[in-house]
TrEMBL record:
InterPro entries: Nucleotide_cyclase, Rev_trsase/Diguanyl_cyclase
Composition skew (Basic and acidic residues), residue ranges: 16-26
Lineage: Bacteria, Pseudomonadati, Pseudomonadota, Alphaproteobacteria, Rhodospirillales
Region (Disordered): 1-38
Protein name (database record): GGDEF domain-containing protein
SUPFAM superfamilies: Nucleotide cyclase (SSF55073)
Highest taxon above the source species: Bacteria
Length: 254
């Protein structure tokens, strides 16, 4: 039976030990040969724990089983869910990157002013009102379903929607108009306003038709869900207040 032992017998304590007596026999309190000791060691090995057994208790992500309270399990579940969501978004972004060029770097690849430049342009236009007779009307555009697209198709698809909206506005921008981004899924156009409300809305709707065109995404077509708001500022109005008023007035144009 000693041949069945896969390795050397473990140094486990036994109830007896080999001792050689004066008559040449071994054992204490009886006569036992070497093969008897081997059989006993094999029996103890089979009864004892496997030498390949894991000594530590079961753990999940390094947390011992004894510490896995319901609250800890919920927290770990939420954490792993968030990791899976981020991993999925990264995979989608990598796959979609082939059809876009750094869509997150909006300032470089889209002719959009930053927030500070847009505020400066607003102040300059408003200060020149007496000379030009045209107030810089604020037209606010927002991709209303950005978050929905992000949840359904991933971050790359949502950015593609914004990219298409802002690119359409940039293509249609006149020399007398300024286009900028304030953050999020919005863009702002400063349009000279000479007091003709109908003319202002005709221009705003023309921009909305271009900016709100559905966006091809892989084998699907994603709508923009465009929202548009128009605000005519007063003399001395601050840029932040004017932009906020336009955003507040934003609604879906049918």
């Amino acid at each position: 039976m000693a041949d069945d032992i896969p390795g050397p017998a473990p140094p486990m304590a036994v109830d007896w030990r080999q001792e050689r007596s004066s008559d040449g026999h071994t054992g204490r309190g009886g006569r036992h040969a070497a093969q008897d000791h081997a059989r006993a060691a094999g029996a103890y090995e089979r009864l004892g724990p496997s030498p390949h057994a894991i000594a530590d208790a079961l753990s999940v992500q390094g947390v011992p089983e004894a510490d896995l309270t319901p609250a800890v399990r919920r927290a770990m579940g939420q954490l792993m869910g968030e990791v899976d969501r981020l991993r999925q978004e990264l995979d989608v972004a990598r796959e979609g990157a082939g059809g876009m060029v750094d869509v997150r770097d909006r300032a470089e690849h889209l002719p959009l002013m930053g927030a500070r430049s847009l505020e400066r342009a607003f102040r300059l236009r408003l200060a020149a009102e007496a000379d030009s007779g045209a107030v810089p009307a604020v037209v606010f555009f927002y991709a209303g379903n950005y978050e929905t697209v992000r949840e359904r198709h991933g971050l790359a698809a949502a950015e593609a929607v914004y990219h298409a909206m802002a690119s359409a506005m940039a293509r249609c921008r006149a020399d007398t108009e300024d286009l900028g981004a304030l953050g999020g899924a919005s863009a702002v156009m400063l349009i000279p306003f000479d007091g003709q409300v109908d003319r202002l809305w005709v221009r705003a709707r023309a921009l909305a038709r271009e900016a709100g065109a559905p966006v091809p995404w892989r084998s699907d077509t994603v709508p923009v869900g465009l929202l548009i708001g128009v605000h005519v500022p007063r003399r001395g109005e601050r840029p932040g207040d004017a932009f906020w008023q336009a955003e507040r007035a934003a609604r879906r144009i049918v």
